[in-house]
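Please fill in the sequence for the structure shown.

STRUCTURE ENCODING:
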């Protein structure tokens, strides 16, 4: 009797090269494993053509047409985002965040009526990210141009986040602007996007002067 071992034959898991190609691409997305990718691919395969076309069209439009707000660097369909362009928002109150996802988290709290400034990261020498790699200079220019009365640091409570806050604080300290930081209702080391809405909202409302936070 001929014994067949696992190494004796090579089994192709997918009967379709096109299906395998789709799974491979979906699995490249963050948080998507191959099992989930396969489930999504099979789900799309069962959908009407128009549903799949709407999905692929939305992704294509987002990639090719989306802009960054020329004021705050938030995602925008035009030159200025809906938040900066909203007359009901307070342009003199600027919340500094590291990532666009932080804006989404803060907006969910419905506790902030100002505008934002997105840095696109935080200073992290170990990762090779310095001040010049971030959207810091435009923030300094916004402050220097006047009209801003308070800057709120809403960065992660990590060494990198604190380093970034301190660097910006030194850059704008010569200007007549109040600087505060969100209260430490957020646990040390936590990212804003994972904080619950109530805790994050209270942290913004109970913000403290930044110099007090240095003690």
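FILLED IN BY: designer on duty
SEQUENCE:
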């Amino acid at each position: 009797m001929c014994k067949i071992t696992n190494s004796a034959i090579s089994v192709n898991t997918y009967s379709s090269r096109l299906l395998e190609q789709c799974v491979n691409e979906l699995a490249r997305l963050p948080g998507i494993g191959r099992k989930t990718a396969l489930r999504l691919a099979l789900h799309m395969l069962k959908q009407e053509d128009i549903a799949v076309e709407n999905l692929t069209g939305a992704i294509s439009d987002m990639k090719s047409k989306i802009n960054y707000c020329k004021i705050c660097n938030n995602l925008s369909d035009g030159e200025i985002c809906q938040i900066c362009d909203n007359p009901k928002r307070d342009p003199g109150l600027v919340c500094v965040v590291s990532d666009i996802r932080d804006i989404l988290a803060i907006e969910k709290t419905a506790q902030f009526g100002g505008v934002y400034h997105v840095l696109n990261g935080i200073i992290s020498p170990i990762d090779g990210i310095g001040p010049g790699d971030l959207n810091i200079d435009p923030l300094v220019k916004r402050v220097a141009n006047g009209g801003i009365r308070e800057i709120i640091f809403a960065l992660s409570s990590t060494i990198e986040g604190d380093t970034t806050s301190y660097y910006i604080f030194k850059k704008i300290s010569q200007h007549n602007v109040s600087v505060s930081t969100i209260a430490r209702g957020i646990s040390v080391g936590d990212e804003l996007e994972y904080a619950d809405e109530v805790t994050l909202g209270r942290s913004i409302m109970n913000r403290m002067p930044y110099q007090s936070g240095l003690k």
